[in-house]
């Protein structure tokens, strides 16, 4: 089972060391559920030694989005098969406000979303997206309480 480390690489939104530790702990707690939902040959998660979660600002995630996916603009989460998950913290702030959600919970949702991508889940098609959303909400409710 891979280890998970969470790093704060942005300074736009204040995130305490305690909160980073909570994200890391909750990510590790959700890992068993994620592994139970892995999808066959598309899953790389069981082969990883470590998963690195980087919390980054809009400018950085927009650059990664453009460079690796040829899509301009910031996004919520980008996952790389070698075990990197990039989370757009400023996007999380906007989305949390839009959906009347807690920012910390929104960030944790994105971390779980990235873990599910490593477990082989796709979300380009509506049916796949619905299934992935259902699983990530279940896992979020298990590992994150407000």
UniProtKB/TrEMBL annotation:
<keyword id="KW-0698">rRNA processing</keyword>
<dbReference type="GO" id="GO:0006364">
    <property type="term" value="P:rRNA processing"/>
</dbReference>
<dbReference type="Pfam" id="PF02130">
    <property type="entry name" value="YbeY"/>
</dbReference>
<feature type="binding site">
    <location>
        <position position="123"/>
    </location>
    <ligand>
        <name>Zn(2+)</name>
    </ligand>
</feature>
<dbReference type="GO" id="GO:0005737">
    <property type="term" value="C:cytoplasm"/>
</dbReference>
<feature type="binding site">
    <location>
        <position position="113"/>
    </location>
    <ligand>
        <name>Zn(2+)</name>
    </ligand>
</feature>
<keyword id="KW-0690">Ribosome biogenesis</keyword>
<keyword id="KW-0540">Nuclease</keyword>
<comment type="similarity">
    <text>Belongs to the endoribonuclease YbeY family.</text>
</comment>
<dbReference type="GO" id="GO:0004222">
    <property type="term" value="F:metalloendopeptidase activity"/>
</dbReference>
<protein>
    <recommendedName>
        <fullName>Endoribonuclease YbeY</fullName>
        <ecNumber>3.1.-.-</ecNumber>
    </recommendedName>
</protein>
<dbReference type="GO" id="GO:0004521">
    <property type="term" value="F:RNA endonuclease activity"/>
</dbReference>
<keyword id="KW-0255">Endonuclease</keyword>
<keyword id="KW-0862">Zinc</keyword>
<dbReference type="InterPro" id="IPR002036">
    <property type="entry name" value="YbeY"/>
</dbReference>
<keyword id="KW-0378">Hydrolase</keyword>
<feature type="binding site">
    <location>
        <position position="117"/>
    </location>
    <ligand>
        <name>Zn(2+)</name>
    </ligand>
</feature>
<keyword id="KW-0963">Cytoplasm</keyword>
<comment type="function">
    <text>Single strand-specific metallo-endoribonuclease involved in late-stage 70S ribosome quality control and in maturation of the 3' terminus of the 16S rRNA.</text>
</comment>
<dbReference type="GO" id="GO:0008270">
    <property type="term" value="F:zinc ion binding"/>
</dbReference>
<dbReference type="InterPro" id="IPR023091">
    <property type="entry name" value="MetalPrtase_cat_dom_sf_prd"/>
</dbReference>
<keyword id="KW-0479">Metal-binding</keyword>
<dbReference type="InterPro" id="IPR020549">
    <property type="entry name" value="YbeY_CS"/>
</dbReference>
């Amino acid at each position: 089972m891979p280890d998970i480390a969470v790093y704060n690489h942005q300074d736009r939104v204040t995130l305490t060391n305690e909160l980073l530790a909570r994200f890391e702990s909750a990510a590790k707690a959700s890992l068993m559920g994620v592994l139970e939902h892995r999808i066959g040959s598309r899953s790389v998660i069981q082969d990883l030694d470590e998963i690195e979660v980087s919390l980054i600002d809009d400018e950085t995630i927009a650059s990664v989005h453009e460079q690796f996916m040829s899509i301009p603009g910031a996004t919520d989460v980008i996952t790389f098969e070698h075990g990197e998950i990039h989370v757009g913290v400023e996007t999380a702030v906007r989305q949390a406000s839009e959906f009347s959600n807690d920012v910390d919970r929104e960030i944790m949702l994105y971390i779980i979303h990235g873990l599910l991508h490593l477990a082989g889940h796709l979300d380009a098609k509506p049916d796949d997206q619905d299934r992935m959303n259902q699983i990530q909400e279940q896992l979020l409710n298990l590992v994150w309480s407000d």
